[in-house]
Amino acid sequence: MSIWSIKTQYSYIKVNGVWYYLLKNIAESEEIPEVVGPPKKPAYTVDVIEVGSQPTMVATTGKLTFSNRTTPATLKASNNTFSNPRDIGRLVRLSLKNNQVTATITAYTSAKQVSVSLDGAVPKDVNDPSVYVSNAETLTWRFGAWYANNWPYAVLFHEGRLAFLGTDLQPQTLWMSKSQDFENFAPTETDSSVVDDNAITQTLNSGKINKLIWGVTGPVLLLGTFGSEWQVKADSINEALSPTNFNAKEQTAWGSEDIAPERIGVSVLYVQRSGTVVRELVYSYEIDSHVSNSLNLVSEHILRESGGAADIAYQKAPYSRVWITTNSGRLVCLTFEKEQEIVAWSKHEIGGSFSGGIAQVESVECVPDSSADKLYMVVKRTINGATKRYVEMMENDFWPSNPQDKNNMFYLDSYKAYDFGAGPYSTTITGLAHLEGETVKILVNGSRRPDAVVTGGQITINGTSGRYVRVGFKYQSLLKPMPIEAGSLNGTAQGKTKRIHK
Q1: Are the C-beta atoms of residues 68 and 85 closer than 8 Å to each other?
Q2: What are the backbone dihedrals phi and psi of residue 41, each rounded to the nearest 5 degrees, phi first?
Q3: Could you give the 3-state DSSP secondary structure of residue 302?
């Protein structure tokens, strides 16, 4: 399966060269945990995670009986318990006199009988080795918490544990793996004892049921739900989370959109449930709790008029900027420097067009680089009458190496750059099939040439060519200078009658 060819909402995390993905297929409304291994030529490998010990739900009523003690086996229920095909692949955890046995349902026979694969032999009675413990019957058993159409919403790492957030059936439940054993979610040891590094299953207790949407690791675990924001930590900041040391407290009650937040220094920026407000979740020493401050109180029209936020990405360098795509396809930037109290919003139009309007930006992501973080975006345009999507990267700011350096001074979108070295310098420029039928701007050695239309993947320069050629979409830049302040005889000139001579 190609993860690149499916339109999905997703949550992901990486550790030791392995990516854990939760891919949500919009059409089927189903999320399946997947793991992507380290790069292998010619591509990545993608596999569904085989979780050796899945988390379980609350204990279920009714009696279960094994047909034999080795795999495969048949599991029989005293009540109508199983369903088809939902339970295929689901785990069942049974307690036989404090011996934990896990089975995976492999086939459905009826509501009272399924075939299973055991993770180990059902123990024999120590007093009578000819029979199974409890005659292979138990009233203490649990279904696995995850199954078809009931996979978790989000994934993250915290304190050496892989954590999954919420399902449709348990929207406020947090599952954390065994410490440093990322695919083991067994709540106890096989002898039913609970130790500190066992997996953790906890449900947020609040007056309302709100779906868990995101989590951010740090000194404490911060969680966002549809209705509020939470802090999770041990009873002491110097202790680690464990099954018996887990403290969850609601911090603020604004609620979040289903958009992954961004940690910036000590702050976490998230999109409020309306989609039109970006908030900063940060700890306040004055009240010994977290607060959520609006960052666009005086610029709320930017997101509101664009249909609300759809995706965000944080660019650390060269400047601290949060890039936001909106539901209408606009690109918005928030310059955020908390120490300098800088919160500045701006709108950006990408060159080209889509269906007669502006080109649309559908997704953004920032990738670290040696000199500056690279902003990548998926841009949707109408090219030669057809809808095209391109993955494009925003160039670093231009810093001339000397006062005469103009060869790399340009502002173009979806451009191609050519360096013809010592020549020859042809006026025919090829390799422009991605801009077929479009009117493009042309720069030669930093100087403008007349516009041209791409035909057959190429253009002809009207005028002389040169070593450095840049071809791409234009975009409009607006400069609004500060009011002129030349001073006056008695203080500032602002607000006073002035004469300006050209």
Answers
A1: no
A2: -70, 135
A3: helix
